[in-house]
Write a structure and sequence with these properties.
It comes from Alteromonas stellipolaris. This protein is α+β, with helices and mostly antiparallel strands and 77 residues long. It is built from 3 helices and 4 strands; from the N terminus they run E-H-E-H-E-E-H. 34% of the residues lie in helices and 25% in strands.
Length: 77
């Protein structure tokens, strides 16, 4: 499954989200693409106040911070 991880530079919450993502049972089967929202005006306006955000490419579902490993497990099912 492909996941887009919307992040930004020096984002401590994004670091925490990265740890939670790595703790999921599905992590080894995920294709995670990190996208710096500061590289796009559109993405910055869409996600600037919400990062970190994970988006599933298969169905477009998103989960934004705060989330824990259990919430991620449910999101990835």
């Amino acid at each position: 499954m492909k996941i887009v991880f919307y992040t930004g530079p020096q984002c401590s919450l994004c670091d925490l989200a990265d740890i939670e993502l790595a703790n999921t049972q599905q992590f080894s089967s995920l294709n995670v693409e990190k996208v710096n929202i500061r590289n796009s005006t559109d993405l910055y306006h869409l996600y600037g106040a919400r990062i970190p955000v994970l988006k599933r490419e298969d169905n477009g579902a998103e989960i934004g911070w705060p989330f824990d490993t259990n919430a991620l497990e449910t999101f990835l099912q």
